[in-house]
Fold this sequence. Notes:
The chain is of the alpha+beta class. It contains seven helices and ten strands.
Amino acid sequence: xxWSIIARDSATGQFGIAVATRFFAVGARVPHxxxxxxxxxxxxxxxxxYGIDGLKLLREGRKPRDxxxxxxxxxxxRESRQLHLMDAGGRIAAYAGRECIGWCGHIEGNGFSxxxxxxxxxxxxxxxxxxxxxxxKLPFAQRLIAAMQSGEAAGGDKRGRQSAALLIYGEEEWxxxxxxxxxxxxxxxxxxxxxxxxxxxxVHFRQFLPTRKNPxxxxxxxxxxxxxxxxxAGER
Length: 236
C-alpha cells in the first residue's frame, strides 16, 4: 500500500527517504535513517521494529542482506511485510513477503533503492527511478519529490492518495529535513509546497543549531537573523 525511495546524495553524503501511500500518516512509521550509517523503509503491513532494530544492526556494521534475514527470521508475520535498506557503502537489500498485495516489487540503481506494494503497476517504480536518475542537477530534496511525482503520474498506490513524507539526514543525529503530510487530497503536491517553504528560513537557520563539533551552536541572534535574511534577499 506504499512505495518509497531510499537514496544517498553523492554530493553531500545525505541519506533521504521519500514515501507516499493511500493511508494515514505514512511518515510516522515507514522511514528510518541513522546519520552517516544507512536508511530503512518498512512497509506493506508495517513492522516498526524493522526500522528500529534494523538501524541498530546497521550501526553494528552488519551487511544489509544479513540484516534483512535477521529481521524477518524473528517475525512470524513476515509474509505480509516489505522492506528495503541501504548502508553507507551503498549496499542494498530488500524483501517482500508472499502475502504482499500486487503490484509489488523492488528495483535499485546507482545510489538508490525503490520498493512498493499495492501499486498500479511496475511502471510506478520504473518511472520513479527514471525521474530520480534524470534529475541529478536538482537539490536532493527536490530530486526525491520529483521522482515520487513521476511514480504518482504512473498510477502510484492503486487505491488513491492520502499521505506522503520526506526525511533527510546529513552529518548530525538530528534530521536536516523532516516533512510529513498526514492527510491530504494531493499529498505529494503538498509535500512539494512544504519543501519550498523550508527553503524560506529553515534551511538557512539549521546551520546555526548545535552540532557535535560545535555543541553550543550559534546563539547570537544578530548573526542568525543576518544568516537567514541574506539568502532571502538574494532571491528577491
